[in-house]
Structure to design on (532 residues):
């Protein structure tokens, strides 16, 4: 497939980094266009290496985001690390903050012809994008046959929440502890015989349905771990910002099912 | 440093702490007021640092909800640092008494020794709560700590433990306890910082680790200097006395900076 066409035809795409500029999360399509067979291979790499940007350019972008809270549009040439093919995009970014302190950059890559709204510069908007990313992955991937729209939305909510917790833990406490979070979730699933997995923050569901208590227990384990590594205040704020991207009915339903508990 | 530049208040706090430490150290070395002024300056600097660390620990402790791990961690750190600050205050009291001599052991030693278990427990709780899996970085950190421990054992502990001339057993025990306690603390602080490597919280813990490491070195120099009757209690300090006292003040300043940056990051201040 032509990588350039793939990007041009699509929507703006996101890359999340930690405070040092190492990739924490990247959209699957973008990672593939950049030459990664497995999008997870890009996680942990410096932004410059992942996007094929000159180091000085990537550093200038990250520096602007960290010091001013966001960056202006700038034209940048991305490069597929395997084929060397290059294409132009507009790059912009906003700072992810915890209690007012910079913890990472949310970077948006847009085809030059695409018009970006001001929303793209806010972390909250990027969380919405993250929620959308999860929704689309659940719709398109893993061969799920979910007839109920409500249940699908609930799954999206759950997966977005888990991903947001993972990204927060990685940004605040490093990738090793992000891996510990996943290991805790996987261990719980193994012990209970539930068919769910978590890798690089991404939740995948097996064919067998999860019982209601599974969602609740997994969500609580992940949240408790994030509390103990950071603090309730920081986690509550991050998840609160994620909640606004779902309908009040979904949030209410998630609360009823125990997927969402107030700290 | 990237993390300090990103938060102006943290940066200002760090610059202020460094400036105060540098000014006091300079005044301590030069002794501009003559006589016993270096002794006064060293004690004032130490108490300023020690009590700043205590106040910041209280603020951090109170910033967490009652059922949070962070609250238990910072309660233990607060109690440990409080006991150390009391120890420093009692030491200063004896030290500044005209013509007085600091007894050994003294009530200050009781406070210092009592502080260790709280500080060890705090770092243990912090490390355990993260459930960090032993990885390459942890082993690398231990690979640096173990040789340090061997050196401390060979050059400080072993001579103390095998010295036959101690009049009282308690003195020997204390001489051995201080470097051991510091080494355990240093190991704990390094493990916490390493476990969070790459994350935003790693930076303040690295500063705290560095402060504890400097404190350990200052204590070791002090132990060596007193062992060899080189430490000057009154009058102008000699080189080895400066090497023990100036880093001691600096260590508290570093720990205070680490606490402040952590508090800013956690939204406590």
């Amino acid at each position: 497939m032509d990588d350039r066409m793939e990007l041009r035809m699509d929507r703006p795409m996101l890359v999340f980094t930690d405070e040092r500029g190492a990739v924490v999360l990247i959209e699957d399509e973008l990672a593939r266009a950049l030459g990664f067979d497995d999008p997870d291979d890009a996680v942990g790499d410096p932004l410059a290496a992942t996007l094929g940007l000159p180091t000085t350019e990537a550093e200038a972008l990250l520096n602007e985001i960290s010091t001013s809270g966001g960056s202006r549009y700038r034209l940048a040439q991305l490069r597929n690390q395997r084929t060397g093919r290059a294409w132009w995009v507009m790059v912009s970014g906003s700072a992810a903050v915890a209690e007012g302190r910079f913890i990472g950059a949310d970077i948006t890559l847009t085809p030059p012809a695409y018009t970006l709204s001001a929303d793209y510069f806010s972390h909250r908007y990027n969380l919405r994008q993250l929620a959308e990313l999860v929704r689309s992955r659940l719709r398109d991937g893993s061969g799920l046959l979910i007839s109920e729209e409500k249940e699908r939305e609930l799954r999206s909510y759950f997966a977005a929440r888990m991903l947001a917790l993972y990204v927060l833990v990685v940004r605040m406490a490093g990738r090793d502890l992000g891996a510990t979070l996943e290991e805790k979730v996987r261990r719980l699933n193994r012990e209970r015989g539930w068919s769910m997995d978590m890798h690089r923050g991404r939740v995948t569901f097996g064919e067998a349905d999860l019982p209601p208590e599974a969602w609740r227990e997994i969500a609580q384990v992940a949240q408790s771990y994030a509390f103990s590594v950071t603090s309730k205040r920081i986690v509550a704020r991050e998840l609160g910002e994620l909640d606004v991207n779902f309908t009040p009915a979904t949030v209410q339903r998630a609360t009823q099912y125990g997927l969402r508990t107030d700290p | 440093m990237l993390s300090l530049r990103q938060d102006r208040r943290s940066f200002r706090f760090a610059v202020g702490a460094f400036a105060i430490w540098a000014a006091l150290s300079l005044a301590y070395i030069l002794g501009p007021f003559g006589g016993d002024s270096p002794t006064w300056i060293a004690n004032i600097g130490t108490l300023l640092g020690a009590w700043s660390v205590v106040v910041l620990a209280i603020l951090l402790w109170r910033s967490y909800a009652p059922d949070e791990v962070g609250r238990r961690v910072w309660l233990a750190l607060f109690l440990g640092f409080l006991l150390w600050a009391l120890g420093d205050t009692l030491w200063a009291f004896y030290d500044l008494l005209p013509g007085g001599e600091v007894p050994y052991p003294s009530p200050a030693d009781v406070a210092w020794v009592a502080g260790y278990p709280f500080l060890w427990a705090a770092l243990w709780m912090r490390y355990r709560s993260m459930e960090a899996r032993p990885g390459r970085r942890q082993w690398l950190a231990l690979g640096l700590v173990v040789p340090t421990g061997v050196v401390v054992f060979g050059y400080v502990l072993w001579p103390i433990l095998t010295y036959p001339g101690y009049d009282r057993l308690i003195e020997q025990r204390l001489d051995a306890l201080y470097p051991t306690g510091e080494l355990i603390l240093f190991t704990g602080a390094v493990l916490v910082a390493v476990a969070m490597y790459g994350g935003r919280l790693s930076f303040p813990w690295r500063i705290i680790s560095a402060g504890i490491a400097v404190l350990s070195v200052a204590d070791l120099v002090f132990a060596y200097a007193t062992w060899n009757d080189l430490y000057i209690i009154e009058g102008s300090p000699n080189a080895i006395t400066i090497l023990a006292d100036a880093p001691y003040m600096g260590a508290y300043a570093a720990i205070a900076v680490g606490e402040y940056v952590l508090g800013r990051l956690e939204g406590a201040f």
User: Anything to note?
Assistant: The beta strands of chain A are 13-17, 23-26, 70-79, 86-98, 101-110, 196-199, 202-205. The first strand of chain A starts at residue 13 and ends at 17.
